């Protein structure tokens, strides 16, 4: 069940739509690394497996169907109803979906839920963007237009194996720390795609993630207090590798598709907000900062 209605990502007639646009025609079809080349979910699956797929339309029955069952869902109510059907048939052994489907797992698997413990929060936000998704790039540009200091790496800096550990990077990070102590939102990004960076795009992608991870490690080691928003799974993995952290605990959703987590590094707990490159409104950075500031005040008042 690939739908995520809260982000206007729905499956209708076997086709997955992003904001009303078939996924292969959306920004995800233009991804330079992993473009989505089909909009029908069954076609996407058949790029990876020869297993038989069967589409289950809204309100339809899966009785007599075999293989990978692809469910249509356009609303949260649709997903809840599908969860009830799966539970009634005891078909809970192998499930697949995104955060939209995850929202109905407690209902489906009869899991108990509890509120997460209050966390010390910093209301200031450092947005770290390694994604080249147009949605993320627009968010960086919008934050800058709203007054956020923006620090963008050059192609040479982000592709260098050594730059992040050097003196020039240290000077830039000093400026980032000063900005973070004074401004509600600060942006550190990789400046979008690299033109003619090299034949091995995968190697470039890994190096950029490692560079950002190394820069973030230096910021944490130097006393960064701002809450970090990291955009793009590659960059989150790059940071975890640089910190030698193997566990991260998701705590709650700050906004649809945007998750607050916690990890341990250097003998203390750190808050981290993360999201996929294609998630969120144009004004996301300041929207999140306002939410964090409100939460901080509410926790302080407790």
From TrEMBL:
Top-rank taxon: Bacteria
Stretches assigned to the Four-carbon acid sugar kinase N-terminal domain: 1-104
Keywords tagged on the record: ATP-binding, Carbohydrate metabolism, Kinase, Nucleotide-binding, Transferase
UniProt feature coiled coil, ranges: none
Family annotation (InterPro entries): 4-carb_acid_sugar_kinase_N, 4-carb_acid_sugar_kinase_N_sf, NBD_C, NBD_C_sf
A Pfam family: NBD_C
GO terms for MF: ATP binding; kinase activity
Ranges of residues in domain Four-carbon acid sugar kinase nucleotide binding: 126-285
Family of the protein in this entry: Belongs to the four-carbon acid sugar kinase family.
The protein's name in its UniProt record: Four-carbon acid sugar kinase nucleotide binding domain-containing protein
């Amino acid at each position: 069940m690939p739908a995520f209605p809260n982000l206007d990502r729905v499956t209708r007639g076997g086709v997955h739509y992003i904001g009303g646009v078939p996924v292969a025609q959306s920004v995800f079809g233009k991804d330079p690394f992993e473009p989505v080349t089909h909009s029908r979910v069954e076609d996407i699956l058949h790029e990876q497996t020869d297993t038989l797929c069967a589409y289950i339309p809204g309100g339809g029955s899966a009785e007599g169907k075999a293989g990978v069952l692809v469910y249509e869902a356009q609303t949260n109510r649709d997903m809840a109803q599908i969860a009830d059907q799966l539970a009634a048939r005891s078909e809970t052994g192998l499930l697949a979906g995104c955060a939209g489907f995850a929202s109905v797992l407690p209902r489906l698997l009869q899991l108990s839920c509890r509120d997460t413990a209050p966390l010390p929060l910093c209301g200031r936000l450092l947005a770290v963007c390694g994604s080249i998704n147009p949605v993320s790039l627009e968010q960086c540009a919008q934050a800058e237009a709203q007054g956020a200091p923006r620090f963008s790496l050059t192609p040479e800096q982000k592709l260098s194996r050594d730059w992040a550990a050097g003196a020039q990077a240290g000077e830039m990070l000093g400026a980032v720390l000063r900005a973070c102590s004074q401004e509600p939102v600060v942006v550190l990004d990789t400046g979008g795609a690299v033109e003619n960076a090299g034949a091995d795009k995968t190697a470039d992608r890994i190096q950029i993630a490692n560079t950002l991870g190394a820069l973030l490690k230096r910021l944490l080691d130097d006393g960064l207090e701002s809450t970090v928003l990291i955009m793009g799974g590659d960059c989150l993995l790059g940071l975890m590798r640089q910190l030698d952290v193997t566990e991260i605990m998701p705590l709650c959703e700050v906004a649809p598709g945007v998750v607050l987590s916690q990890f341990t590094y250097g003998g203390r707990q750190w808050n981290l907000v993360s999201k996929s490159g294609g998630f969120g409104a144009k004004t996301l950075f300041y929207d999140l900062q306002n939410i964090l500031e409100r939460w901080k005040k509410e926790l302080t008042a407790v």
